[in-house]
Prior knowledge:
295 residues; 80% helix; globular
Amino acid sequence: MQHLSFAAAIAALINATVWGLSWIPLKFFEAHGVPSLWATWFIFASCAITVVIAKPRAPKILWQHRRALFWLVVASGLTNACFNTALATGDVVRAVLLFYLMPMWVVLLARWLLAERITVSALVRTALALIGAALVLGDGKVQLPIPNSLSDVLAVVGGFCFGLNNVVLRKHSDTPEEARALGMFIGAVIIAPVVLVALALTGKAVALHAEPVAWLGIAGFTLAVLIGNLALQYGAARLPANVLSVLMLAEILVATLSSWLGGAATITQSTLIGGALIVSASLLAVFSRESEATH
C-alpha cells in the first residue's frame, strides 16, 4: 500500500511538472511560427484522437451526455486557450499565480451551481487570494486587482474557467470517465479555432508560419501531455483528494524556478508575498474540504 501511494504521488508530481514546464515548449512554438492557439489545437486534437482510438465508444457516450457536459467542454477549452496563450506571451510566474486564483472562483461557482454554503473559511481564503492578486498585479502596492495586460487578463480568465471546469466535474461526477476525458480534450479543439476566427474578424488574425522544427516540438509536447494526463488519472485514483491537491501545487514551484532560471519571469518581493498568499488560499481550500469531509 505504501508503495502504491508513493508511486501515485510520483505520478501526480509528473503531471504537475509537465504543466509547470509547459511554458518552455509554448514559447518555443511562438518563436518558430506556431502561435499558442494553433499549438493548443494541434496538441489537444492529437490527444482527443488518442482517446478515441483507446476508447472507441467515447464519442457516442459523450454525445449521450452532451447536455450535462456542455459547460465542461466550454470551460476546459477556454482554460487551455487562455492559459497557454498567457504562458506563451507574458511573464510566466504572474500567469501561473493569477491562474491559481482558482480556489476563489470555486467558492462563488460552487455556491451558484452546487448550492454549497459560503463558510468563514471560504471567505478567509477568498480574502487571501484577493490580497495576493492585488500584490502581484499592483507590483507591491495593495490596490484594486485589475489586470493591466492581455496576458494577465488571460491568466485570470483561464483560472476562472478552470474553477468552472472543476465544479462541473463535481456536479456531473456520475457521468462516464471516458466521456469526461474526451470532453475536456475536445473543448480545446472547438474553442481554439473559435478564438482564432474571432481574432481574424476583428483584424487581429493569428497566422501560422510553422518551421519544420516546430512540428517535432509539438509531437514531443503532445506525448508529454498524454503522459501527464495518464499520470494524473493514476494518481487521482489512488490518493486522497487533499493530498492530490497539495501535490498539484508543485506546478507553481516548477514554473517559478524554471522560468526564473530561464529568464522568462521577474520575481520581485511583492510577487513572492502575493504568491505566498495565493498558495495559502489554495492550501486552505484543500484542508477545509478535508475537514468538512470528516465531519
